[in-house]
């Protein structure tokens, strides 16, 4: 079951995100060149703090403590004007590698380097970010270079969330995350 986290209050600084690398380096036993062994499975993670909350607000965030279920939260992109991307969808199934082709974009729309977007495949969200700027052609088709490899077999017409990308995954919560302070805030 997916638990949707509230949009308010928003996480506060520091909010960090990064790539969890499953790739590794391969080095020759006799001292040859080092090679990067890219693997399908590199993915994003976020680490954030919440402001002190009143108990009623904090209860909704307790979903983070469900170790067996995934949680879904907005991926913030502060200071970024998304614009009107259209109604993007995956353009063709069985795409592999580090380039993803979408359709249904507003012609001329530019996905910016570092811009996040999520894809809904079989009810689960998959988060990606552009590795370079990409522009939709006059037919609304765009090929986006990705920071990480495509991680699953997205289906033709899967919905792509450019306006409000989300990250889904298993949470890890600090032991003292839900401490009740002397003033009653959590």
Structural description of this entry:
- This protein is 4% helix and 38% strand.
- With 186 residues, it is mainly β.
- The chain has a three-stranded mixed β-sheet with strand order 1-6-15, with no helix packed on it.
- A hairpin with an 8-residue loop joins β7 and β8 (99-105).
- The two termini are 25 Å apart.
Which structural traits does this protein have?
1 helix; three-stranded antiparallel β-sheet; globular; about 190 residues; mainly beta
Q: What is the helical fraction, as a range of percent?
A: under 10%
Distance between the termini: 25 Å
Give the low-pLDDT segments: none
- For the report, how would you describe the main beta sheet? 3 strands, mixed
Structural class: mainly beta
Mean pLDDT: 85
Please provide the count of β strands. 15
The gross shape turns out to be: globular
Q: How many DSSP H or I helices?
A: 1
State the assembly state of the protein chains.
Answer: single chain
H/E series, N to C? EEEEEHEEEEEEEEEE
Strand order, biggest sheet?
1-6-15
- Report the portion of residues in β strands: 35-45%
What would you report as the Rg, rounded to the nearest angstrom? Answer: 19 Å
């Amino acid at each position: 079951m997916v638990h949707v986290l509230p949009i308010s209050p928003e996480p506060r600084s520091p909010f960090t995100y990064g790539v969890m690398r499953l790739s590794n380096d391969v080095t020759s036993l006799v001292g040859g060149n080092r090679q990067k062994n890219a693997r399908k499975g590199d993915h994003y993670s976020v680490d954030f703090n919440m402001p002190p909350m009143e108990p009623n607000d904090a209860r909704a965030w307790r979903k983070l403590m469900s170790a067996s279920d995934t949680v879904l939260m907005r991926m913030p992109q502060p200071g970024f004007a998304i614009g009107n991307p259209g109604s993007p969808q995956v353009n063709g199934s069985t795409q592999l590698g580090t380039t993803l082709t979408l359709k249904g974009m507003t012609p001329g729309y530019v996905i910016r380097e570092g811009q996040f977007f999520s894809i809904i495949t079989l009810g689960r969200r998959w988060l990606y970010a552009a590795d370079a700027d990409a522009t939709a052609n006059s037919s609304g088709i765009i090929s986006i270079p990705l920071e990480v490899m495509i991680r699953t077999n997205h289906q033709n017409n899967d919905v792509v969330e450019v306006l409000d990308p989300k990250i889904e995954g298993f949470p890890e919560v600090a032991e003292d995350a839900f401490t009740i302070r002397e003033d009653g805030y959590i």
